[in-house]
Amino acid sequence: MTYEAVIGLEVHAELLTRSKMFCGCRVVAADEAAPNSTVCPVCSGMPGTLPVINRQAIVYTIMTGLALNCAVAEFSVFARKSYFYPDLPKGYQISQYELPLCRDGWLEIDVESGARKRIGIRRVHLEEDTGKLVHVSGASRVDLNRSGVPLIEIVSEPDMRSAREVAAYARKLRAILRYLGVNSGDMEKGVIRFEPNISIRQAGSAQFGTRTELKNLNSFRALVRGTEFELDRQQRLLERGETVRQETRGWDEARGATVAQRSKEYAEDYRYFPEPDLPPLFIDRAWVDEIRASLPELPDAKQARFVREYGLGSEDALRLTEERAVADYFEDAVRAKPGRARVIANWILSDLFRLLNDSGKGIESVRVTPTGLAELIGLIDSGAITANTGKRVLADMFESGGSARSVVERNGLAQISDAGLLEEIVQKVIEANPAEVEKYRAGKETVLGWLVGQVMKETRGTGNPNVVRVILMRRLGMLQSDA
User: Which of these, 176, 169, 150, lies nearest to 9 by C-alpha position?
Assistant: First the structure.
């Protein structure tokens, strides 16, 4: 029997507000403050306290909904989602359920066939985050610094049919949140977490299978591996004639397997009811239009513009626009060196990305400025240095933060075009390699390139390869005529 995957994704993303959702406590990173140091009676769930809505969190949620093509509700309410867990001090979470801020949107992803696929987005709603349990030997401790941090939950329709589609959707969604500036996208710190709902069904069937949910995945690797494992696990169960239980499961990275956590709750299990301490939200249409006008250019639009305006290939444009900081760096460099967009793109996507990957740094902290990269390309264009020398210069700039010209001067890397000096080096290479010279004389013309390389090696890459080639061809031609 052939089976088909049916996958939806829930994404929880902390909002980059300065204060928490319902109180004035400062939002801090997990490694920024001592446990329970940014906590007050409201976010610690003390009796008699009253929540106050964070206006900026509302703005960020509407921005996200608009970027995801959602309808923004004119009327929405908060609810109490009741459940009991040590990191939830009130015994309930203030969230939205029946009337969320945004709903009925969509996001397009690129699929393996090269086509685009539209993934439906059911809702984008606003809530507060829970605290955090820290497990130590023989005990668990509660840190409430994260309790009450504004959190949006983005719930897709079950429109994805493979782990790759899930990863493409998650990557695109994370990129959009980072472009908007509403979430840092730092998965290692848990500020964005993925929870796929996974089921399989007989191919061609309209009936959904029993689904399981993987909780709190904080990397694309875990998202892909966990989804693939769960799809395989469910298929093996059905092929043995067993049933899939509806449950919440976790991903064990060390074992490379999902593990059961608890039976899956239904909405009624949470005993949702309206939050009595918060008024309904009435969203003015003029305010929504104002927020819409403030949205930045988003990844898809920027990618299309890079192809149209700079003549880039679609794949290069995609890689340059996945991160807003990279796209901004590219355009700043193009403004400093107009007409060289494709060359600049090649330097960023190859050499600069390699240096960033090797160092583990992001482009925001790179010491090579966009104008510095443009200066380097200008030196190559003018013939002051060779392209190969340019790679060495870029590596030095990356470490030292110096300008391209200062690195060239400090290391004596200026290109040698002096024919008299190069004549001596060429003669030395010819005399040191009689076997290769003989091969050239016998008609193996590819040896010429090898000999050029030897001269470049002697000059530490600073010889002008065009001048070197002319001298070699003249001298080797003389050798052939002498024969």
Answer: 169
Query: 41 and 71 in contact (C-beta within 8 Å)?
Result: no
Residue 123 CA to residue 111 CA, distance in Å, equals 23
What is the helix (H) or strand (E) element at residue 388, kind and residue range? helix 387-400
Domains and CATH numbers, the chain: 3-290 (no CATH), 297-411 (no CATH), 419-482 (1.10.10.410)
- The pLDDT tens digits for 205-260 are 888 999 999 998 999 999 999 999 999 999 999 999 999 999 999 999 999 999 99
Residues 324, 334 contacting (CB under 8 angstroms):
no
pLDDT tens, position by position, 326-375? 999 999 999 999 999 999 999 999 999 999 999 999 999 999 999 999 99
Q: How far is 334 from 332, CA to CA, in rounded Å?
A: 5
Q: Torsion-angle region of residue 114: left (phi > 0), alpha (psi -120 to 50) or beta?
A: left
Q: Which CA distances in Å does 96 have to 12, 174, 196, 236? A: 13, 22, 20, 37
User: 225-228: long-range contacts at Cβ-Cβ below 8 A with a sequence spacing of 24 or more?
Assistant: 225/163, 225/251, 225/256, 226/196, 226/251, 226/258, 227/7, 227/163, 227/166, 227/196, 227/198, 228/163
| Cβ atoms 158, 119 nearer than 8 A | no
Question: CB count, 10 Å around CB of 280?
Answer: 11
pTM of the model: 0.84
d(CA 61, CA 151): 9
Do residues 153 and 97 make contact, with C-beta atoms less than 8 angstroms apart? Answer: no
How many CB atoms lie under 10 A from the CB of residue 417? Answer: 15
Distance CA 320, CA 95 (A): 36
Bridge pairing between strands 71-72 and 192-202? unpaired
* 146: Cα within 13 Å, side-chain hemisphere: 20
